[in-house]
Amino acid sequence: MDLAVFKDIPIVWIGLLASLAAGLATGVGALPVLFIRGLSQRVQDMLLGFGAGVMLAATSFSLILPGLEAACGGAAAAFIVSAGIRLGGLFLQLTHAFAPHEHFIKGPEGADPKDLSRVWLFILAITLHNFPEGLAVGVGFGGGDFQNGLSLAVGIGLQNMPEGLVVALALVTEKYSRLQALGIALVTGLVEPVGGLIGAGAVSIAQPFLPWGLAFAAGAMLYVISNEIIPESHRQGFEREATAGLMLGFVIMMVLDTTLG
After folding, report:
1. Is the separation of the CB atoms in 149 and 161 below 8 Å?
2. Residue-level pLDDT at 245
3. What pLDDT is stored for residue 102 in this prediction?
4. How far is Cα 64 from Cα 145, in angstroms, rounded to an integer?
5. Most-buried pick from 29, 104, 128, 152 (CB within 10 A)?
């Protein structure tokens, strides 16, 4: 794909806009909530698995491998990327430990929510989930590899769509109106450009941070996949369907990454 048309646009702006587009896909995916009565739990878990598979492939092919390449390979590269992955996971673990939030199935986590309403706790939970996705897109573009950044943006947007629908349907079951559910799903995606701006800005200012940034984003994504999405998709007894969705999402993202890259 010829991306020369973007050469005069500052990288930070490209990272911001691409992560914004990926975030808005959450709202686009939630649109069917206005017209459908609901989806079976089996289908919802398969959609969650699909999103996990897309994120896993994006982490592998668009973050970890480019991170190793940016660190020039060898033992030093393995050390940098492995350390960055652990830092990204630790950041998400600490954030989940101290930020009040609530999952649809696992229930409340983090600090005392005090007077926050339950809907805001849901929004905070999904926001914690979406931030590393925007960070990954921003870092991808910030490194100057437009095709890698594009692959990440497309992949994150692709997994955001079924996620947005599942979130909106869950909110409807919690007695929110369909318009409220759509609005909340859209709002939760708008944190991604914040992560995109931070990621693109950091690595474009200091290129030596690129492998660290890619690995950090990969660690944060891996934490979300393992700690949030897979457990959520397995709690209702549809592990096989969720696993089938994960494998399908992984393969589709791998093909997209190969094609766009």
Report:
1. no
2. 93
3. 61
4. 14
5. 152
- Model pLDDT, residue 135: 84
Stated pTM of the model = 0.82
190 phi/psi in degrees, rounded to 5: -80, -5
DSSP track, the chain: ---GGGTTS-HHHHHHHHHHHHHHHHHHHHGGGGT-----HHHHHHHHHHHHHHHHHHHIIIIIHHHHHHTTSHHHHHHHHHHHHHHHHHHHHHHHHHS-EEETTTEEESS--TT--HHHHHHHHHHHHHHHHHHHHHHHHHTT-HHHHHHHHHHHHHHHHHHHHHHHHHHHHTT--HHHHHHHHHHHHTTHHHHHHHHHHHHHH-GGGHHHHHHHHHHHHHHHIIIIIHHHHHTTS-HHHHHHHHHHHHHHHHHHHHHH-
HSE toward the beta carbon, residue 65, CA cutoff 13 A: 14
Rounded-to-integer distance, Cα 160 and Cα 131, Å: 12
118-142 and 192-205 helices, crossing angle to 10°:
30
Q: Provide block-wise average pLDDT over 10 residues at a time, the chain (261 residues).
A: 56 83 90 85 89 90 89 88 94 80 59 58 72 84 77 86 84 82 86 84 76 90 88 88 95 86 61
Residue 124: its pLDDT value, please? 72
Separation of alpha carbons 144 and 126, rounded Å: 29
